[in-house]
Amino acid sequence: xxxxxxxxxxxxxxxxxxxxxxxxxxxxxxxxxxxxxxxxxxxxxxxxxxxxxxxxxxxxxxxxxxxxxxxxxxxxxxxxxxxxxxxxxxxxxxxxxxxxxxxxxxxxxxxxxxxxxxxxxxxxxxxxxxxxxxxxxxxxxxxxxxxxxxxxxxxxxxxxxxxxxxxxxxxxxxxxxxxxxxxxxxxxxxxxxxxxxxxxxxxx
Length: 204
Known about the structure:
Blueprint: H1 4-25, H2 29-36, H3 52-56, H4 61-82, H5 87-102, H6 115-125, H7 127-144, H8 147-166, H9 169-185, H10 187-195
Helix pairs in contact: 1-4, 1-5, 2-4, 4-5, 4-6, 5-6, 5-9, 6-7, 6-9, 7-8, 8-9
């Protein structure tokens, strides 16, 4: 049982870390870059998602790349900012960033799928764990050309990477929580995968 006095002292900092990470993660870069490029509202294109895969459906690979880097970067930025106050705060700011991307208050809590932000968060928390997850995503994408399948496999493998590479139980738990969030956000994709109806990368 944690000491109640120390917990009551730390709780406001943990809450601030979650909220701060959430605000960073809730910036809808996919929506912003497509609007700035004059393409209108990305939520009216393809799947209606604000993430990289749907931005790619506009035919603008440059905007999709920018969205990928910015969404991943905000997860990494949240962790790096939080790390100034210790590893526990870094974990919480990273978690907040992913939740913010999935459920941004500015978009009525309808955000992206959280893949790039999760990978960026993992890279900042432990580079080699994040790199292994990214490599897994890339390998599955090359083999099957399905972004959703790549994401599901990569995040599911992340807790294993966290254990075998870092031997860090806290990181294993965080990777498992992030994986659960990403899988939850891919409910519709999982249903389409099971029916054999999931579109491939680059499909307009």
